[in-house]
Amino acid sequence: MEWTFHSAEELASALRAGEVTSVELTDQAITRIELEDKTINAVCVPDFDRARDDARRADAARARGEDGPLLGIPVTVKESYDMAGLPTTWGMPQYANYVPEHDALQVSRLKAAGAVILGKTNVPMTLRDIQSFNEIYGTTNNPWDHARTSGGSSGGSAAALASGFGALSIGSDLAGSLRTPAHFCGIYAHKPTLGLAPTRGMVAPPAPALPIDLDLAVVGPMARTARDLTLLLDIMAGPDPLTHGRAYELALPPARHERLSDFRVLIIEDHPLIATGSAVRAGVNRVAQALVDEGASVARHSPLLPDLTEAATLYMLLMLSNAAANLPLDVYEQLRARAADLSADDRSLDATRLRAMVLSHREWVETNNRRELHRRDWRHLFAEFDAVVCPITPTPAFPHNHDGGLENRHIDIDGVDYPYFDQLVWAGVATLPGLPATAIPTGLSPEGLPVGVQLIGPMFEDRTPLRLAELLEQKIGGFQPPA
What is the mean pLDDT of the chain? Predict the structure, then answer.
């Protein structure tokens, strides 16, 4: 039997029923990767020998009566996670031979759950792009159209899932790096509440794997069904024992509702700083109509929504000030001189990004305090609504574009060019306040490309957007394999 596109939940049931073995599942996945990945280039660091050994051990454990949530299920891991014995490069040529000695915490949790890890998936250099390509491993293509990007920075994982290379993957998200590839490749992903899933060992080489609480950035699950996201999130979530020991157990509240008709949803399809492409607008409205058809309470406007322009500005300030913290001194001084020449009236996102890279600590504290006001405003909004539906990026997957620096590229939105990085404002809606956001597929564009949206939920109420994703999957359909 062909198991390629079955969910992890279905595979777990089949394994428990003795309908298939882990060795069979693993061999099928490896065969498919060897045949299909020549054109996709998603699995950049295969680990097939160890995977087959782990599959045999999983089958032996099951024969002894053992079980686990992922026992014997083939999965992949984003290249940026440390795995003992495999390179962790973040796409940087100078670290092509850097091999960590220990697994990242989330890799350890996958293994403890019984997962069979097939290998690592491709990323952009330093994870800082909306595409996945680098000098070491090359370019990952979108399974729906090889001339287009699979997204970034978890683009290898999204392409692997859409291609049937394993049932699950783990990625990370600072600027939509889980959500954008999911949207471009037609799969599911979940950006957890900030701090819910520890990030230790998801670190750029050669830095040590310390239990640092990252600002804005999270790690999270990717899958082909909404229910699989919940399955994997339950494995990933929970405190890092190095910082919290066993002081408390994680107990996320249940979803607010179990039926679509009970949800109160705010729909946002327009952003003041960037246009929404027609294909993405149609995807947002497919979800809105499905909610209306099921009797949910749906609103298009609310005075409770935090100011999206200010949110985008704060997001860029916090994100870029962090990204620039380790720049060489001469580069930093050049940026500071350029920022000093900016007109005080220039409030464009380009100007904001430049100011962010030389932000003083005093200015950072002020920015962080303004973020807390946004978090308060979101708490007020989620007293009236259960979820917010909005775009992930303004367009479906765009053609590969590796020309020049990121600051010199543009994104075409229905025939109009916008600065490349401006499309991140949609990712920042959830990232700035640290809210959970579930990326779901909504169907195909007129060009036959996947289109997704994000379901943003209240802080630490991750099960609410995840449950909404499950219900919408039943109503409008979910993942479909590329033609």
Answer: 96
